[in-house]
Design brief:
Blueprint: E1 37-38, H1 41-49, E2 53-60, E3 63-70, E4 72-74, E5 77-83, H2 87-92, E6 97-109, E7 117-127, E8 130-131, H3 140-151, H4 164-168, E9 170-176, E10 179-185, E11 203-206, H5 226-229
Antiparallel strand pairs: 1-10, 2-3, 2-6, 4-5, 5-9, 6-7, 6-11, 7-10, 8-9
Bound molecules: flavin-adenine dinucleotide.
Length: 233
């Protein structure tokens, strides 16, 4: 779920304007179930903005790794952050990687075992991360504030901001959304005509993220701000 549709547009990078669908590259050309493919930037943006995390796949001397990490979008880039000492952060600056995001929207129950499916929205992004510097095209501090805005709009103004040491110990990375593919499945099961008489329930079991009731810290005496009061809406 996206807490802040505008967070992606709030930092310094010019507002992303979804334009015509991008042309797929050799590796983003969807072949299997190509009818579910999209290279429309607006679809990609929506999938990223609805995500709390992405998975980043990269290689090092020990093989291939796929690491979950928080993400957010500013314009035409996906952003992540981590400690300067993070193996992942260091490796991502050296080489190409692949980032994925998946939202599961439902279990699709068909009348035959092999026609079962899932409803989903997924994205695969290829490229190389670059370091976001202070006073860069997008300032590192602005990028981290956009992350906070993505999580809880308005919270940045309430909290103790990061100090110089904290910012210095943190690396912010971004990857361009220039080479990406999305796949989206929705709707009912697609049964073969000869299976329509099978006496099994068929349909979709929807799945969604559920927001729980906020749990204040025992020592917190502050009235719940807007984003806490409206967390479950
Ligand atoms: C929730 C979920 C469950 C799935 N379960 C299964 C399963 O059980 N078995 C199975 O075979 N497949 C499953 N899929 C589909 C799977 O993600 C692949 O699309 C499919 O396996 C084809 O892979 P491929 O590499 O052969 O596709 P190809 O069409 O050859 O892939 C070509 C390119 O298309 C892009 N692409 C491929 N898949 C995706 C994707 N899902 N999202 C965005 N871009 C993509 C990539 O850039 C890839 O390099 C599932 C997908 C989701 C989101």
């Amino acid at each position: 779920m996206n807490t802040s549709p505008s967070a992606a547009e709030s930092a310094a990078e010019p507002a992303a304007q979804p334009t015509a669908p991008s042309a797929p590259s050799a590796r983003t050309q969807v072949k299997r179930s190509a009818n579910r493919a999209s290279h429309d930037p607006a679809v990609l943006h929506a999938i990223i903005d609805a995500a709390w995390i992405c998975h980043v796949a990269f290689r090092d001397d020990h093989g291939v790794h796929c690491i979950p990490t928080a993400c957010w979008r500013i314009g035409e880039h996906l952003y992540i952050h981590g400690s300067n000492g993070s193996r992942m952060v260091k490796r991502l600056l050296d080489d190409e990687c692949c980032v994925t995001i998946t939202h599961v929207d439902g279990l699709v129950m068909a009348r035959s075992a092999f026609n079962h499916s899932m409803n989903y929205r997924s994205a695969v992004i290829y490229g190389r991360f670059e370091k976001v510097e202070e006073s860069g095209e997008v300032d590192k501090r602005d990028a981290l504030e956009a992350f906070m805005e993505h999580l809880a709009p308005g919270r940045q103004a309430e909290i103790r901001p990061g100090n110089d040491n904290e910012y210095a110990a943190t690396t912010v990375l971004r990857i361009a959304l220039a080479e990406a593919a999305c796949k989206v499945r929705s709707g009912p099961p697609e049964d073969d005509p000869e299976d329509m008489d099978v006496r099994a329930w068929a349909g979709v079991l929807p799945l969604r993220e559920v927001r729980g009731a906020p749990v204040p810290d025992a020592a917190c005496t502050i009235a719940a701000p807007y984003y806490v009061r409206h967390w479950q809406e």
